[in-house]
Amino acid sequence: MKIPLSKPYIDKEIKERVLEVIDSGQYILGNHSRLFEEEFAQFIGVKHAVLTSSGTSAIFLSLKALGVEPEDSILVPSLTAFPTVEPIFYLGAKPIFIDIDETFTMDPKHLEKVLKNRSQMQKVKGIIPVHL
Fold it and tell me: Which of 63, 38, 42, 67 lies closest to 51 in space, CA to CA?
């Protein structure tokens, strides 16, 4: 018996919505995308939300919006997938890897130590927390 790593929840409504999008032929920039962006923005309490093709694209756009440039640094957990750091490298910035703790997320003690280190902080532009 195979044990799945994850099993997405899919009910009748989700199936119907997916078929609506397929039948519309507008997989990107269509009415369904616009409506989702509006509803999601309202749900999380912000003015705007933007759909992207992947989490990597979302990270890239976020870093661009923050004005990340070469020589800037971004703090990331040492246990992460390459797509987390790829946009950092693409922008010419540098990831600073933070040790993880028993939860497999950033160790707050190591994060605090890095944040207190003035030589590294001069160029830190952000933190990308990752959870599993």
Answer: 38
Closest to 79 in 3D by CA, of 5, 130, 6: 130
Retrieve residue 11's tokens. Answer: 């009910």
CB 27 within 8 A of CB 21: yes
Cβ-Cβ contacts under 8 Å for 83 (sequence gap 6 or more): 54, 55, 56, 59
- Inter-residue contact 124 to 63 (CB < 8 Å): no
pLDDT tens-digit series, residues 53-85: 899 999 999 999 999 999 899 999 999 999 999
Q: Are 71 and 92 in contact (CB under 8 A)?
A: yes
**What's the whole-model pTM score?**
0.75
Q: Is the dihedral of CA 103, 107, 55, 33 positive or negative?
A: positive
